[in-house]
Amino acid sequence: MNWQAVLPLVLFLIVVFTVGLWAGKYVKRTDSFLQEYFLGGRSLGGFVLAMTLVTTYGSASSFLSGPGAAYNQGLGWVLLSTTQIATGYFVLMILGKKFAIVTRKYKAVTIVDFLKSRYESKWVVLLSSLSILIFLFSAMSAQWIGGGRLIQSLTGLSYIASLFIFSVSVLVYVIIGGFRAIAITDAIQGIVMFAGTLILLIAVIIAGGGVPAIIADLAAENPNLITPFGANADLTPAYVSSFWVLVGVGVVALPQIAVRAMSYKNSRSMHRGIIISTIVVGFIMLNMHLIGVFARPVIPGVEVGDTVMPLLAQTVLPNWLSGIVLAAPMAAIMTTVNSLLLLVSSTIVKDVYLNYIEPTAKEKKVKRLSMWVTALLGIVVIVMSLNPPDLVIWLNLFSMGGLEAAFIWPIVMGLYWRKGNKYGAVASMIFGVTSYILFESFYPQPFGMHSVVTSIVIAFIAYVAGSLAFREKDYL
Fold first, then answer.
1. What is the pTM of this model?
2. Mean pLDDT highest for which of 53-57, 204-208, 394-398?
3. Cα–Cα distance measured from residue 211 to residue 214, given in angstroms and rounded to the nearest whole number
């Protein structure tokens, strides 16, 4: 075992646990368990808001699979990923103040809470909850696998043992601390991710002999690696632009991201959050993918894309520093997985159990149930992650597309179109999700684009048609 690299990672986990225990005190003494556990008491300042957005979006795909795909595809994959730079801007500008005001008015704790109050329909609630459960399990599994692989590459332990260590680490502090623990550790982990990206970028450029030398090596191996079209010239303009919808604009519809826009303290915090998150996301996403491409001449012949980043760090950095740098992907994975875990548990407890099974349940019972459900979900995802694929990015992208097809119009049109109603929302979810699953299964690239684009268009038509065909009073 490489103890010099493992030790910084262990210290990092100790800090995370300490924050979880500290935040757990707020959960114990709060008068409103649901507001505190699932939204941190709506008290996030601009910096913490920005970092929790950055780290929730940054995930195993951003730090392991994204660089792995860039390693295989070249600079074309960097171009494809650039739309992620404006992710925080899209989320906070599109949802903006109106979303925060409306969710406070409804006393909404989750995205499903908002949809329930906006559309006043149990079918909207049930379809929303079902969509979250279906698609977020695959997203959580992708993060669990990424965490297991990272620990495996550092320690030399088996994948199963590494998966177990990662899972226990995450579950302990999420179960104890809830959203406040997640938001604060997100801020710490965001700083680690930023610093880790910068250090590794400098190191790989030095190891490759400078940017001109790296580009020359890539061109000598395969000229397509330095073009916008990918190693096999299969990244067409239609395909790349459809990815900009999937990982850029469409992110506004991801429940785990949108819930962040409900939790900030005031409009000043939101404006600071927009600026900071755009700068930090842009820096991390652009440079992590560049690192993946630059790694190709430095460590040629890597077969499993998810292992490029940890192998590179251990090749171009001293052991102790590679441990610190590899805390960055660990931070990205942990922050994403804890957010997903809390979101799914809130869907089961808040949106289904409290709405339709026991609406008058006492807070003590809700608290106990929330923690048990969170723990049980973690165990289910561990089982799902026992046989991982080579590149987890496709699991993550499948989940993103499904959630965007389900939620983008009920959320956005629900905020800004007064004539939108429950019939439109239900039609949009059914047509969006069904068409997405069918396209992904039988016709993955309709019109040369990622299937999410076609599904979002179908969902939009269904939303408008459903709302106009079955008119109700306008939303005020």
1. 0.73
2. 204-208
3. 5
